[in-house]
Amino acid sequence: MIQIHKNPNNEPQSWIDYKNTPGVDYAPHIDLRNALRDEQGHICAFCMRRIPLPKRDPNEAEFSKVAHLLTRRNHPDRKFDFDNMVLCCAGNINGEAHCDKSQGSTDITLPLFNPQLQSSISYGSYTGEIKSSFDNWNTQIKDVLRLNN
User: Fold this and answer.
1) pTM for the full model?
2) Which of 47, 99, 139, 148 is the most exposed place for a label (fewest CB within 10 A)?
3) Cβ(49)–Cβ(89) under 8 Å?
4) What is the C-alpha R_g of the chain?
């Protein structure tokens, strides 16, 4: 996991204009996706897998997904909040769902923007298993995001 340095100045103006359009609902937006990818150094916010630049339509889910930490289903009032979004990989390696794909409607409460998360993370020396020294964060890492699959 990486610490994400969220900067409200990174929110693209075209996304701000889109979300302020009366009656509009959330939909993937290319400038939003690009801003999140740049903010994260082109890696998944959860598993740190590299997110390549798309070869075709940049909105295709095979490359990346905009993940809402507090899900749109549980928090419809947060669906446009830039500080509630990160970019993650497509969430499927060898048929195993992980990251946003396994998140479903579960809210992510891991403090991705707090350096304490990064310092709580360790990796198994033989297995590479990722774990946190905090049990509640460990549960989300293993059971919600399924990062050790």
Assistant:
1) 0.86
2) 139
3) yes
4) 15
